[in-house]
Amino acid sequence: MIPRYMVNFDLQQLPTVYTDVIVIGAGIAGLFTALRSAETHKVLMVTKKSLLDSNTRYAQGGIAAVISDEDSPAYHRQDTLIAGAGLCSSSAVDVLVHEGPAGVKDLIRMGTEFDMEDGRYALTKEGAHSQRRILHAQGDATGAEIVRALSERTKQDPNIEIWDDHFVIDLITQDGECFGALVQKPDGQKVFIRANATVLCSGGAGQLFRYTTNPDIATGDGIAIAYRAGANIRDVEFIQFHPTALCYPGAPRFLISEAVRGEGAVLRNINGERFMDRYHPQLELAPRDIVARAIVSEMELTKSTFVYIDFTHESEETVKYRFPTIYETCLTFGLDLSSDWIPVAPAAHYMMGGVETDLHGETTVKRLFACGEVTSTGVHGANRLASNSLSEAIVFGRRIVERIRELDKITETPVLSERGRATGQAIQPVVEKKLKLQKLMLRYAGLKRNGKGLAKGYEELKRHLAIFDNSLAKREEYEFANLLICALLTTQAALIREESRGGHYREDFPERDDLLWRKHTVFNRVNGTTEGRIDDV
């Protein structure tokens, strides 16, 4: 059984810090929400590393919003719903496509410099988009530019206090209401932050898998923290594997953006044959899940660990201008994007599910909000449309701030203490445990799944639950415990869903089954597993 709290504590004995809003995490969701909240409230930002460490920084493609006269919210809505494979919430998608452009204007006002062409914003197209609607910055460094602009403003804002290198262990709740968070300082001391509103912006869980485009910090903390606090966790079986991550000895799984295929790059197997025509009429621009599985099938057929992406039809000037970051990164490993075929393979990239929220970003726990990849707002359904993630963070960040402004002040503090964990017991090194978990998830809950493997994986994961009987004290121990919770929920959800849809593919149930499975899988620590209905499209 997963305990309510990870450590022993007594609130009466802990130092307490008071603030209006706590923002946990520092990607686009955290930075943007903190800046908007700070217009009217005191904000404390807690990050486990630093302001510049987040998934956002690695986002290359761009941000999707209806800017062009040829485009419309109706087109953007249709593309998002098609990609989401019948599991999107139509009301959440409506919010995204109609409020996205205003969110982009906010980013520009906050100092983000998007690329221009002939005096207007340069727009590109990505897989499964019917129109050119992706704004980008410095070619392929959109995320880095957004983080640069927002973090500079955050540091200068007198209403924002930033705590780097602090770890949020748990949320403090009573009677279904959140009162703030229990935080560990860099020196190991614990402190209670009491706040009127708590916003989880802690990103995804790419570290569940051995190969991921996510940074080390993406350990699913927010999902696990919210689960222990009693929030609903929804649709975590849907994991997006990016089809084309660099696969080269000594190199990290660096993203070769979908925009490269958008600009005409083709995929070839180890024998040099172009193969996507055997899998989908949209070829290289088919939805990500289809491209990723096609690549795995080719790798299996040719007994290889990678396929190639071929962008050699473009001139060196164009390649350098349009994809400077990818070009430079490949070059550091002796690969030239303009003249070499680049070896790539799928890697875990994005979690479609997460902490269930309403249209104002509030979770099923009062005063607890969530924004960005940690959430399940209903925008992405079973498969996220490229470049919708950055827009989702801004659109729902704005709505969270509107809702926070309506909250009344908390006056009392709960009298809470937690005992029950063994004290002083050392835990065997978690590095090994984490690697085992990642390999297990890759083997049994990766791109292709089946009931037998998932059941085996779930049983093997359960053996690690003994970690909760120990006294946890280090950041890596908390992270492993959080990953374990996410792994158990993901495997369980994948086992329950006996069909294939979007980012969830079962070899033993290869067809999509709308009659039985057009519904959400919802987990709650207290209420167990339930089903969520779809608002009809």
TrEMBL record:
Report which reactions are catalysed by this protein: L-aspartate + O2 = iminosuccinate + H2O2
Annotated Gene Ontology MF terms? Answer: L-aspartate oxidase activity; steroid dehydrogenase activity, acting on the CH-CH group of donors
The name of this protein is L-aspartate oxidase
Provide the primary localization: cytoplasm
Record NCBIfam families: nadB (TIGR00551), PRK07512.1 (NF005701)
Q: Keyword annotations for this protein?
A: FAD, Flavoprotein, Oxidoreductase, Pyridine nucleotide biosynthesis
Q: What function is annotated for this protein?
A: Catalyzes the oxidation of L-aspartate to iminoaspartate.
Which pathway does it take part in? Cofactor biosynthesis; NAD(+) biosynthesis; iminoaspartate from L-aspartate (oxidase route): step 1/1
Q: Where in the cell is it found?
A: Cytoplasm
Q: Where is each Fumarate reductase/succinate dehydrogenase flavoprotein-like C-terminal domain found?
A: 436-525
Obligatory cofactor(s): FAD
Residues at the active site? R288
This enzyme's EC code(s): 1.4.3.16
What organism is recorded for this protein?
A: Paenibacillus validus
The source's superkingdom equals Bacteria
Which PANTHER family does the UniProt record give? Answer: L-ASPARTATE OXIDASE, L-ASPARTATE OXIDASE, CHLOROPLASTIC
Broad enzyme group: oxidoreductase
One of its Pfam families is Succ_DH_flav_C
Record keywords: Glycoprotein included?
no
- A GO cellular-component term linked to this record: cytoplasm
Q: In this protein, which residues make up the domain named FAD-dependent oxidoreductase 2 FAD-binding?
A: 20-390
Q: Which GO terms describe its biological process?
A: 'de novo' NAD+ biosynthetic process from L-aspartate
As for family, the record states: Belongs to the FAD-dependent oxidoreductase 2 family. NadB subfamily.
